[in-house]
Amino acid sequence: MSQINENFLNLQDSYLFSTIAKKVTKYTQENPDKQVIKLGIGDVTKPIVPAVLNAMHEAVNEMGTKEGFKGYGPEQGYPFLRQAIVENEYQKRGINIQEDEIFVSDGAKCDCGNIVDLFSENNKVAITDPVYPVYLDTNVMSGRSGDYNPKTDTYENIYYLPVTAENNFKPELPKEKVDLIYLCFPNNPTGTVLTKEELKKWVDYAKQNQSIIFYDSAYEAFIQEENIPHSIYEVEGAREVAIEFRSFSKTAGFTGLRCAYVVIPKEVKGYTKQGKEISLNKLWNRRTCTKFNGVSYITQKGAEAIYSEEGQKQVKENIQYYRENARIIKTGLEKAGFTVYGGTNSPYVWLKVPEGITSWEFFDKLLEKANVVGTPGSGFGPHGEGYFRLTAFGTRENTQEAINRICQSSQSSQSSQSGDGVKKGKITL
Ligand code: MLT
């Protein structure tokens, strides 16, 4: 008799974005005449830039020749891409990262999920609340969560770090010892950031407690303000305690192509039960060689082209396009009277839902009244209740139209507007 991994039975419902997709499909089937605009999942809409396309076309042609054909590549990624990442993402910022500390993969979601393979079930895990659901669910699947409490919508053994307007969306250091800490900045879902000094506190905590920080910086390309670190390795001491996850999905529109990387400096160590230090870089390398055959040569050539002069120019134009969408969402909603966070250093805008309704009720209302899809804050964790996320990755036309529709459907209890055009008062939809 085959026995299942019963930890899976401890998971709640389906994956957040699948639940939303199902709801939207049902709505569109029942209302075929409605033009639904999707600003839910953070999926890009701008096509792959010409520099990347050209490099991929060349790679396709190479693969058709006797001399240029490639079979299995290095599991960790081709040296040309690992070196391009080192030079452009790290050395240019004065950060010391070596080629053999970069592991190219097919996505940051998979990397964030797979990294838990290296750690025993006994680790205490800390996540922010709200959080990108993958961090939590993969720990539930691998037996690190303990039981689910439906009353609080939390798991017994997980240490939750609330991030709400009350603490300016900055998690406080844990009051007890935790071993594995997930941080994502610019943050998904709240769109907020930490300064270097604020991040330093976490690095210091991790050093003191022999913890590991999993730092997801998939959205770093959206940072516009000074003194906001793009990489955790800008912080002194982080090479000893941090693993960084990066992706080409949001920076270069690779959500459909699939290419990302993990950075594991050689100094980062885990421990055996007896307290012996073990290199996590070595363990991850071993895992990668066993379970992965690498990203396709064609995709890696495309990723390398992002770092060419024209590639940089083209992907930066796309980022600027999404930034402008974020600005349109943020200012439009503020004018309509909503309280809005994020959107400045991030493609995500996090808004307070009108008083008296839940995030999912707001989702339903927005779908029915404005035919706009977003993501309910409570889907990211209990402290996400009362909030709602909109993504700036839509087209300009759809973004503008979605905001017009939301503004038309929403009413402020006070009809007058302040001098800056911002409505004041209670908002209803
Ligand atoms: C999101 O919408 O949170 C992200 O697109 C999900 C992901 O990157 O997997």
Helix/strand layout:
Layout (H helix, E strand, L loop, with lengths): L15 H15 L6 E2 L11 H14 L15 H12 L11 E4 L2 H7 L10 E5 L3 H9 L6 E2 L4 E2 L2 E5 L17 E5 L11 H14 L2 E5 L25 E6 L1 H4 L7 E4 L5 E3 L5 E3 H12 L5 H9 L3 H27 L4 E3 L5 E5 L6 H12 L1 E2 L1 E2 L10 E5 L4 H14 L1 E2 L14 E2 L1
Parallel strand pairs: 1-15, 3-6, 3-7, 7-8, 8-9
Antiparallel strand pairs: 2-10, 4-5, 9-10, 11-12, 13-14, 14-17, 16-17, 18-19
Bound molecules: D-malate.
D-malate binds next to loops.
Number of helices, where a helix is a run of at least 4 consecutive DSSP H or I residues: 12
Give unreliable regions as ranges. none
Strand order of the largest sheet: 2-10-9-8-7-3-6
Shape: globular
Task: Quickly name the level 1 CATH class of the largest domain.
Answer: Alpha Beta
CATH architecture of the largest domain: 3-Layer(aba) Sandwich
Number of domains: 2
Q: Tell me about the biggest sheet?
A: 7 strands, mixed
- What is the helix content? 25-40%
Look at the structure and give the mean pLDDT: 95
Radius of gyration: 22 Å
CATH topology of the largest domain: Aspartate Aminotransferase, domain 2
Total beta strand runs: 19
